[in-house]
Amino acid sequence: MTACEPAATAYRQSEHHRFRVADADFLYLVPSGAVFRLDGLSKEIFDAFPLGPLDRGELVSWFTERRYAPDEIEAILEEMTYYDVLTSGDGRPKFPSIPAGDFPLQRVVLNLTNQCNLSCGYCYEYSPDKIAITKDKPKYMTDPVAQAAIDTLFRESAGRPKLHVTFFGGESLLNFPLMQSTVAYTDAKAASEGKAVDYSLTTNATLLTEEIADFLAEHRFGVTVSIDGDKELHDRMRVFHNGRGSYDVIAPKIKMLLARHKTNSIGARVTLSSGVRHVRRIYDHLTQEFDFAGVGFSPATASPDRLYHIGGETMDDILGEFADLAYEYRDHALKGRHHRFTNVTDTLKELHSGVSKAYTCGAGLGMLGVGTSGDIGACHRFVDAPVAQMGNVVKGGIDHEARREFLEQHHIGARPDCHTCWVRPVCAGGCYHESFINHGNTSASLLKQCDRVRGWIDLCLHIYAEIGMGNPKFLERFND
Ligand SMILES: C[S@@+](CC[C@H](N)C(=O)[O-])C[C@H]1O[C@@H](n2cnc3c(N)ncnc32)[C@H](O)[C@@H]1O
Ligand code: SF4
Ligand code: SF4
Question: In 332-429, at which residue ranges do the beta strands (DSSP E only) sit?
Fold first, then answer.
């Protein structure tokens, strides 16, 4: 090559996960989080790279000799580089950049109280895995603290037009008057600042009344009801302080709520534990007996020596039942029908949006948790915890330096264990709270679960591609 000749562009395959659905080849592209279908010439070109980089000119002449027109080759190459199927980069893993410590806020989660009228066996608020230190904290949040939290949300939200307030606890309906006054305060502020706010609530449902249901409907609350299945299963863990199960109390109240509140969706959230692992049975009960809009399952976070901890074999059984429901979801989707297993909906949404996450979730990023004293934690699970603290909404607002440090420490680029994992655009290392409970360190990746995480995403990729081929219109619902 002489000094005036341009350097040849060398291409290589981008980092990817390859999978096959009904004789078609697909790539899940790690740098962009996109799904790309390989066929015809694109497949041949991609497969010409088994050993490393190839020069563009060499590629074109190689395929020209094999009956393809140069224009066609150039067009496909353009497409493949545009979608990051081929890259002219150095092949090293790429990560999204670290956001600034004043990254605009979108959501606050208010723990209106740290008290609860139930005593669920697995609850991270009260079990031996509890990390919050509440002995010197007020039991109930007050108006000045809640209003300071809302002021913080608005002040720190920069140009975001739509904000979100979640009420949490403890059992936040123990402090329903504060919920009412906070919504009134927030609505007035939103009107004067020209922003929209929506509300959500997670509740154990024991304290629901018609008045509360009407309030939730009037303010279009998205409601998540915690319920672990039929009476027998639910009452194993979700009990009052005297050990009595809560199912018989909540069942009629949930039906009342579903009948009166039609302005937003009401979903069920199931916490699985070693004795409550019957995914199909629970799903059928919650969709047939209650008509919830969606049912989502989450394994209880627990250190391995807790009796309710889910061991490896049980987790595999649970994932087997997840797969069964996921294929049912696919069959529904192919016929254009809604299915209520929200674990699949949530994953398909992420795959469809082509996310490449820098963080496992919004904790400390667009979302913060606020405790009864106004102390700010990275999320609701870290309210009043000894770690992941970021200031106080009454005393000085967000501690931007602490937040910046948190964001640096938990960024995907700071997790070497994840750097070669193809599933990192959606996983990004796993829940900080689960890491803390299991490893005493919020930024330790949850490596024991990795094969299961990869298996689940691979399954959802297959389903995504099948729906994309059989009923692409169904996926339009994820365009938002
Ligand atoms: C802490 S509660 C607070 C709101 C309300 N009291 C309720 O039960 O819905 C929020 C959710 O966290 C779940 N949860 C409690 N402990 C958990 C744990 N160790 N692992 C996973 N989820 C847990 C509950 O089942 C509930 O769905
Ligand atoms: S109702 Fe909610 S906060 Fe109360 S013990 Fe159960 S899971 Fe924990
Ligand atoms: S925690 Fe495991 S599955 Fe998740 S990105 Fe890291 S290595 Fe991959």
Answer: 367-370, 375-377, 389-392, 397-398
Asked if residue 453 is part of any domain, the answer here is no
383: Cβ below 6 Å to ligand 2?
Answer: no
End-to-end CA distance of the chain: 50
Residue nearest to atom 9 of ligand 1 (CA): 203
Nearest to 23 by CA among 473, 465, 471: 465
- Asked whether residue 61 falls in the same domain as residue 136, the answer is no
Q: Report yes or no on 441 lying in a domain.
A: no
76 and 111 together in one domain: no
User: What total number of domains does the chain contain?
Assistant: 2
Q: Whose CA is nearest to atom 22 of ligand 1?
A: 300
- Is the domain of 83 the same as that of 111? no
Closest ligand 1 atom, CA of 118?
6
Q: Which amino acid is at 334?
A: L
pTM: 0.94
For a mutational test of ligand 1's pocket, the pick from 114, 124, 257, i.e. the residue with the most ligand atoms closer than 8 A to its C-beta, is 124
What residue numbers bound the domain in which 52 lies?
A: 10-87
Helix (H, G, I), strand (E, B) or coil at 405: helix
Contact in structure between 150 and 197 (CB atoms under 8 Å): no
CATH code, domain with 154: 3.20.20.70
Pair of tokens at residue 51: 């050993």
Please give all residues whose beta carbon lies within 6 A of any atom in ligand 1, as ranges. Answer: 116, 122-125, 168-169, 171, 202-204, 226, 269, 271, 298, 300-302
Which residue among 355, 421, 460 is best mutated to probe the pocket of ligand 3, counting the most ligand atoms within 8 A of its Cβ? 421
In SS3 terms, 54-80 reads as EEHHHHHHHHHHCCCCHHHHHHHHHHH
pLDDT, mean of residues 123-138 = 91
Atom of ligand 2 nearest to the CA of 170: 3
Same domain, 80 and 133: no
At how many degrees (to 10) do helices 176-193 and 210-218 cross?
Answer: 10
**326 pLDDT exceeds 50?**
yes
* Cross-strand bridge partners of residue 184: none
Residues 203 and 334 in one domain: yes
Only one residue has tokens 């469809």, namely 352
pLDDT digits (tens, 9 = 90+) for 178-219: 999 999 999 999 999 999 999 999 999 999 999 999 999 999
Count of C-beta atoms within a 10 Å radius of residue 476: 9
Type of residue at 266: I
- DSSP symbols for 200-245: EEEE-STT--HHHHHHHHHTT-EEEEE--SSHHHHHHH-BBTTS-B
- 277-291 confidence digits (pLDDT tens): 999 999 999 999 998
Alpha-carbon span 112 to 217, nearest angstrom? 20
Same domain, 83 and 112: no
